[in-house]
Each structure stands twice: as C-alpha cells, then as structure tokens.
Design goal:
Largest sheet: 6 strands, parallel
Number of helices: 16
CATH topology of the largest domain: Rossmann fold
CATH class of the largest domain: Alpha Beta
Number of strands: 21
CATH superfamily of the largest domain: NAD(P)-binding Rossmann-like Domain
Distance between the termini: 35 Å
Number of domains: 3
Amino acid sequence: MGAGEVGKHLAESLSTQSHNITVIERDEASAEDLDESLDASVMCGNGASATALAEANASECDLFLALTSRDYTNLVSASIAKSMGATKTVARVHAGVQREEWLFDFRAQFGIDYLFSTERLAAVELTKYVRNPEGLMVEEIARGRIELHQHKVSPESTAIGVPISKLKWPDRVRIACIYRDGENHIPGGEDYLMAGDLVTLSGEPSLLDQVMTKLDPRAKRKKDLKAVIFGGGEYAFAVAQMLESFGVKVRIMEKREQECRRLSALLQDSVIIHGDATSLQQLKEEQVNEADFFIAVSPDDEDNVMACLQAKSIGTEYCLTLIHRADYADVIYRNRQRLGLLAAVSPRLAANRDLLRFMDTGKYHKVSELQGGVEVIQLTIKAATGLVGQKIAQIKWPKGAALVGLLRDQLALVPTGGDLLQADDTVYAIVTHEGRKPLVKLLSR
C-alpha cells in the first residue's frame, strides 16, 4: 500500500521477480502510471479501508507492506490486513514513532510484525562509515545492532600466532572468517592469525573498536572525533543521536531557525548552528575543515553533493551524503572516489534492502557476499526444528559455517556457546560454498 518513492521503488524491484504483487495507491494519476509500467495488479483506493483491502485480497497475502508517508494510515491499514488474515505485516513510520516504542508497544497493539523508518535505516548506513572509515568492509546485521568488519592483519599485530581461543578479546566478538592465500576459512579455537590475513569480525559496534588495534597497532582510532551535519529534520536528528552515543562531537548547520530550536531541545550534547552549509564562506567561518566528517542530509540532493565538495575542498577528511533519488545515489556511489566522497546513501535503497529479506520464498535470505565468495545468510528457527532449546556449543555445526548474529524480538547479540536457540530466533551466519547447504539443512530440518 502506497506508491510513493519508497513503495514505487520496491514495487519496481519486485515486479521483475516471480511474485504475485498487488499495489494499492490512493492517487489516481500515480496508480495509472504504475499500472502501465509494472507487472502487477494496481488498484486505486484507500489502503486504510477494509473494503479496499478486501478487494485486494489482503486476507490471502503472505506479506502486506504499508508504505505511505502517513504513520497512522500505515499502522491502521497493516493492523486491518493482519486481522483479515495477512500472514506478515510491515508498516513504515517516521523515526519519531519508532523512538516511542520504549514507551508504547505499537507492534503488539496493532498486531504488526515489523516497523521501520527510512530515517533510521539511512542513519545506520551513514554512521557505520563513521565507525570504520578505513575498513575494507562494513556490514550491519540484526537491524544495525551487530556489525561485520573486515581488516588486514599487520606484521606488528600482537594476535599473530596465538590460538584464537587464547586471545583476550571482549566477550561476544568473534573472528568469523579468515581469507588467506586466496581461500576463505571459518576458524576454530585452535586456529591462529598470520600477517596479511583478511579477517572478518562480528560484534557490537562499540566492542569492535577495542579489537581493531590488536589486528593493526597503527590503526589506532583517533579520539575526540568531530562531525558536522548539514541539514535538520529527522535524518539529522537520527544521525546526531547515533554519533553522540559513539562519543563523537557533533555540530549541526541548519538555516531554519525554528528547526534549530527543536534540535537544540532534543540533543543535549550537539551544537546547533543557525547557518547555511552551502555557503563556502560560512563553512570556513565555522572551521568545518577541522571536522573529521562532513555529513550532508538536507532534503536537496544537489545541495548535499555541492556542500560535500566544498567541505572536501577546504580540508574535511571524510564527506558523506544522503541522496534521496535512488538513481542519483547509484551514479554518485559509483563515482564517489572521483568526487572525494566516502559514501552516498539512499533512504529508498536502504529501505528496499531491509524489506527484501521478507520476500524470500526459500529457507534462507542472502544478506551479502564477502570477498572470496563467502556469504552472510539469514534464517529463522522454526518451532518444529529439533535444535530449539539446545545450547549452541552442544550442536555439531557443519564445516564452513559460523553463526555471527542472533536476533530475538528486540534483543540482538553475537551468540556464544552457552546461548540457547529458541523458536522464531533469527540467526545470521557466514558460510562458504560448501558450508551453506549443510547449515540450511541443519537449521530447517
């Protein structure tokens, strides 16, 4: 339901696959345009109407996605669809609603399986680059609460030659994979690291910081990182809030005085500047050149890119930009090095990537592929699985597979041997080509 920028982009992506799709769009002109371009059934109607949902056969759908820009329309329509019999429902909300989940359980109240906000998904994408700007790979799993980082082991590393089981690293940080001499290897406790290894780590973002210097003492993270955010609104607030939690010193440049006052009331540790970051003179006056990161999240794509180019030209080390148009984001991402950008993030692509995992008809979902052909996959533990109630250490895991994350309701963690598997757990695993099929069979039998 809803064929705005998020819904239309997802519908276009799904229409090329073998799914039976129905789109409900309230605007008649948009519905007509979509009907001509999509291999899908398109209805013009109000998706919060029980009549419209009945006509769309929402009661028989495997997945119902409410993707309009109106929070409560999405909550109501997803709730009605669930009551009618939809197997799984997803509702898009603004970041403000998602922040209120600690105060009120919207999912339980409305019977909705998953809530998401494009603002938060984009903020997670942007901030992961701040956490590891020089990392060869940064991948978030378990709704952004666990990260996978890739690092090269330097000859000066204190971890070389020490059995992995003997490494004094933080709990719930694990070496998930080692790439050596052109081959990937899922290590055990007796394996050890060698200089030049490409290591994939999994863990909570704050804990991974403590491990990086053990792999390369020269990669000591700079303390007192400084970031300047261009633009206000929910994107700026979500990014600033996450950066504050990482100990980054944040300044926000916003030209709307009322929005400056709102952000100042919400953010305790960030400095809010009433100014225009598209002005080169103002960037110089605010000494943006001394910032480690310049992050552009204004509503205007052209302003974001130009502001980044200006910040880079005066000496800001890393520049990141939000690109609202998905087609722009792809072009800018492919040319980011030429433009001097660390990353370009599209809220629509971030939402598309997050939601596609619900569309898998197989037993697992491929989250990403790492160097050398190793994959990160996601599976859900069914109640009938014989592994429910067993400790992870008691399970005989196939060669070429390792669990790197576990999501249980709102709890996300890197599993250890003492953790129990429960029904409806979502597990994330790194698998080689030989390990994927045995692991999927083990977890779904």
